[in-house]
Specification:
The chain is an alpha/beta fold. It folds into three domains: 80 residues, Winged helix-like DNA-binding domain superfamily/Winged helix DNA-binding domain (Arc Repressor Mutant, subunit A), CATH 1.10.10; 107 residues, Periplasmic binding protein-like II (D-Maltodextrin-Binding Protein, domain 2); 93 residues, D-Maltodextrin-Binding Protein, domain 2, CATH 3.40.190.10. The relative contact order is 0.12.
């Protein structure tokens, strides 16, 4: 019986209708897919054209081609802009995966002989959000490269880069980043427990209970400076050596913390600065710093992988072109 079934299935392969169906399959244009994804995530196809180094008309032509290949409308007008149709939402999800696999394949082919050892440092904020996909993607593309990873505080990352104990580090900009090193500029925000009573009332003259990491800490310094400039009294309510401890204390309602929106647990929410009588905050640069001056292909490829992961993870408005 198994042999008969196998013969039937093999016969189907040579059936003219089956072969005709294969011939009618359409291969989506990768360049058009990239323009589509960049346009959606940039919020504007004009901005996408600028980022891709193409004219707006060229990007529009690619999107039209993509709709013709898909045989369905991907975008619809919404006010003065465009929004995705249901089919567009579906294709956007697939397009991101296709482009990721395409870029990973090219990286693997071009770096097929890549081997060696690299030491990578990360801020804890990005440990769960970016690090897994960076390590997984790079390891699949370059299996002969051994990665030694370290999640650490900013000062430690900078010290180890300076001393040559790390090859590459994703760290907060301490004011020393060059234009090529800065990869993003992230907003800072005041944080409190998602549920519970207000943590602090400025009208009662209470000092603000501040939750921070141990000094030295870039964000702790910013929080204290901003409160001092506003003339607000504050006290250190909780100090943690780790980001996990800071999250726990904030979720428990022990005080207010300052951080970026990256990696916030569900138990913690961003506070409205005006509504809570808190000062407005500046932005904070994110840099990708290396200990060498270039020329190491292993570091080059890992840096490119990190940049790609950040472009897929962070808000487009935060990224440095």
């Amino acid at each position: 019986m198994a042999i008969v079934i196998l013969k039937i299935r093999l016969f189907g392969i040579f059936d003219p209708e089956f072969q005709d169906g294969l011939m009618r399959l359409t291969n989506l244009d990768m360049d058009a897919l990239r323009s589509f994804v960049v346009g959606v995530e940039a919020g504007s196809f004009a901005r996408a054209a600028d980022r891709l180094g193409r004219s707006t008309s060229a990007v529009s032509a690619q999107l039209k081609k993509l709709e013709e290949q898909s045989a369905v409308a991907l975008l619809r007008k919404s006010g003065r802009g465009l929004t995705l149709t249901d089919a567009g939402e579906t294709l956007h999800a697939y397009a991101r995966r296709l482009l990721s696999l395409n870029d990973e394949a090219l990286s693997a082919v071009r770096g097929v002989d890549l081997e060696g050892w690299i030491r990578l440092g990360f801020q804890a904020d990005f440990g769960e959000m970016v690090l897994p996909q960076v390590l997984g993607r790079f390891a699949r593309a370059h299996p002969r490269v051994r990665i030694e990873g370290r999640i650490a505080r900013n000062d430690e990352l900078m010290d180890k880069i300076a001393s040559g104990h790390l090859d590459l580090a994703l760290a907060w900009d301490d004011g020393t980043a060059s234009a090529t090193e800065r990869v993003a500029t992230l907003p800072l925000c005041w944080l409190g427990a998602s549920e519970g009573a207000p943590l602090w009332n400025a009208d009662r003259g209470e000092p603000l209970p501040l939750i921070t990491l141990e000094a030295p800490c870039v964000l702790r310094t910013i929080a204290c400076e901003q409160l001092d400039r506003r003339g607000l009294a504050w006290r250190i309510a909780f100090v943690s050596p780790s980001l996990g401890g800071l999250w726990a204390a904030t979720a428990a309602g022990l005080g207010i913390a300052l951080r970026t929106p990256i990696g916030l647990p569900a138990s913690i929410g961003m506070l409205d600065a005006v509504g809570h009588g808190l000062p407005a905050l500046p932005s904070l640069g994110l840099m990708l710093r290396r200990s060498d001056q270039g020329g190491n292909p292993v570091v080059d490829y890992l840096a490119a992988t990190i940049r790609q992961a950040l472009h897929e993870t962070l808000d487009e408005a935060w990224l440095t072109a």
